[in-house]
Amino acid sequence: MILLGSILYGLGQVAGMIIDLAVILIIIRAVLSWVNPDPNNPIVQFLRASTDPMMRPIQRFIPPIGGGIDISPIVLLFGLYFLKFALVSSLIGYARVLNPTVGFG
User: Are 97 and 5 in contact, with CB atoms under 8 Å apart?
Assistant: First the structure.
């Protein structure tokens, strides 16, 4: 059980880091959308390629509001934070039940 606890703890930590990275990329993309960046810029292309697969399903259900304001990044950020607080904390909590010493050294 100690090994399973350590594995679950590691999975929880990695999942948390991936979610944090996704949040950072989404925020950068949202801020860049305010200044209308060059679509041929490699950084802009990377941001779009890495965030579009997460945002497209939300954009299908929630159209832009008002004057074309896209709220899908906000909805996606709420979803990612929900995943982080629900899934990641559950994984780490269950890992600590299986191995009480995990994460303290």
Answer: yes
pLDDT score of 65:
86
- Tell me which amino acid residue 95 is: A
Whole-prediction pTM? 0.86
Per-residue pLDDT, 42 = 93
- Residue 8: CB atoms within 10 A of its CB come to 21
> Torsion angle of alpha carbons 53, 31, 18, 51, nearest 10°?
10
What does the domain layout of the chain look like in residue ranges? 2-98
Q: How far apart are CA 58 and CA 63, in angstroms?
A: 9
Residue 19, CB-side half-sphere exposure with 13 Å CA sphere: 20
| pLDDT reported for residue 105 | 55
CB atoms within 10 A of CB 10: 15
3-state secondary structure of 69: strand
